[in-house]
Amino acid sequence: MEGRPVLVGFDASPAAERALRWAAGEASLRGVPLLVCHAWTWPYPLSPQDENALAIVRGMGTLALEDGVRLAREAVPGLDVRPLLVKGTPPGALLDASADAALIVIGARGAGGFDKLPIGSTALHVPAHADRPVIVVPEHEQEHGAKRIVVGIDGSPASEAALRFALQEATFRDAAVTLVCAWWDPAALPGPERLPFTEPQAVKERAKARFAAAVEPCLADYPDVAVEYRFVMERAQRVLTDNAQDALLLVVGDRGIGSSPRTLLGAVTRGVLHEAPSPVAVVHERDPDVKKP
């Protein structure tokens, strides 16, 4: 197999197993290798008293990695699966290994996460600092109604990168793409402040025309992908989460219009990572591989 591999983090947790299966399927669709990464480190505040203790911890990591490689090969027989054992933290190991990867796949929660949290620290840290797409796979599987990928657009450079990634994924999966553009409803304003928005339908139609024109160059590069538009005057996080209920994948930019340049992940992106029932792909404007075909 040629091309940049799909990189997946594996720590033997249920979410990591789901992420591993997703990543194996992704690598198969792309025709590239799968790189399974396990990070190990000494888990105690005091240094080990002897080398045997350190070797035992490293050996446990080796066993976990071997299990991940076996599961990936069972999921997609014949796939080129490559192991990577790294001494360090999971976020650091994945970010370092991603330099030569096409994308990163991780589970929403790792082995050390709190049961009541829908997403762990690694699943927030990696999308915030990576320079290529990161797919975060939830722990629990959902039913897919149709072969559909949902992408949020708001006119920002990151959302254009997200749209291109969604269209690329659609070609791999023979799926349709639903473009969702949602913005705040001015009806929430008190009466006097609402005067500039007294014709919400007209505002909506103008927005539809503007966004349709903005995405046309991207869509023209993927003429065989079926596309549906959804323009909604509601909170973006809620609309995206609702539309992802039966989707194969939800794709968002790392931060949208209105986010501070110092913000690593925008509020909507963080929100859908916590709440979306489907896998979520976070795409960055700076990603070198999300470009015209």
From TrEMBL:
Chain ranges of the UspA domain: 4-138, 147-284
Organism classification: Bacteria, Bacillati, Actinomycetota, Actinomycetes, Streptosporangiales
Organism: Actinomadura latina
PANTHER family documented for this protein: STRESS RESPONSE PROTEIN NHAX (PTHR46268), UNIVERSAL STRESS PROTEIN RV2623 (PTHR46268:SF27)
Gene Ontology MF term list: ATP binding
SUPFAM superfamilies (UniProt xref): Adenine nucleotide alpha hydrolases-like (SSF52402)
Similarity field: Belongs to the universal stress protein A family.
Protein name from the UniProt record: Universal stress protein
UniProt KW keywords: ATP-binding, Nucleotide-binding
